[in-house]
Amino acid sequence: MDPLLIAILAIGLLHRDVLCYPTRDESEDKIIVLQNEEMEPTILECDYEVEENPKFITVKWYRDEKSIYQWIYGTPPYAIPEFKNEVDSTYESSTEPSKQYSSLALINPTISTTGDYKCVVQTSQHTFSSHQRVQVIDLRNYTLELSHKTIHNETQLNCTVTNVYPRPTITIISNDMDVVKREPMVYEDEEGYFDGSAVVAAYDTDDDPDAYQCVVSFEGYGKNLTTVATSTSAGVGHLDFSLWLFCFLYYLLSKLKVLI
What we know:
InterPro entries: Ig-like_dom, Ig-like_dom_sf, Ig-like_fold. Residues 1-20 form the signal peptide. Residues 22-129 form the Ig-like domain. The structure is a single chain. The protein has helices at residues 3-19, 234-259, and strands at residues 23-25, 30-33, 42-44, 57-63, 66-72, 78-79, 104-106, 115-123, 127-137, 143-151, 154-164, 169-174, 179-181, 185-188, 194-203, 210-218, 221-231. The chain is α+β, with helices and mostly antiparallel strands and 260 residues long. It folds into two domains: 21-137, Immunoglobulins (Immunoglobulin-like, Sandwich), CATH 2.60.40; 143-235, Immunoglobulin-like (Sandwich). The strands form four sheets. Strands 1, 2, 4, 5, 6, 8 and 9 form a seven-stranded mixed β-sheet that branches. Strands 10, 11, 13, 14 and 15 form a five-stranded antiparallel β-sheet that branches. The chain has a three-stranded antiparallel β-sheet with strand order 12-16-17, with no helix packed on it. A hairpin with a 2-residue loop joins strand 10 and strand 11 (154-164). The longest helix has 26 residues, at 234-259. It starts with a helix and ends with a helix.
């Protein structure tokens, strides 16, 4: 074989080995629900295997491709200054020397902690990458209200939610079949929190009381915010008033006729 061709193939194989290193993605997001009291650190693991007696081990953590923490085997771990209040660099994840400071300990979480995290481990022979999505939920100071106004046989429902994170999905549920929905409106404020509202027009012609429910949900989070409202049928209320007015006028006229 041509020596030049052999050299080209060798270079190609070398680059393939360098670029195509093992990668592992976590299947589920790690959820952090913010609380008012002091919270325990959230630990992101970086699981890897190294060869026997490696010449060096470097572990680097990134959030949204921005470096936040690194550890070089044999030296103290180091949090990037911008993130020193968000990472506990003293956390020891393992008694095994080659993994002692490999995990990322997130402290003092805020909504900015949300992001895609990646750890990259390099040795003299291998490179390994692991990904983990972190989603922060902040419902500490939310408000949720479902109001309704009935005119004849139409009920206007308005559900509003404020000061939540992340972006909510707002759904109004009615026991009426004839419902006209409008797309919810969601806005992000200057601090990154969300306010939203949903409006529904429900039409009712039966005599039964109506029940309505507003559900606020968040992608990847199993708990919802809910509130309910009930109202009597608008048609029945209008009919009852008309019947009462008719009876009252009939009674009054009959009395007047007797007096005449």
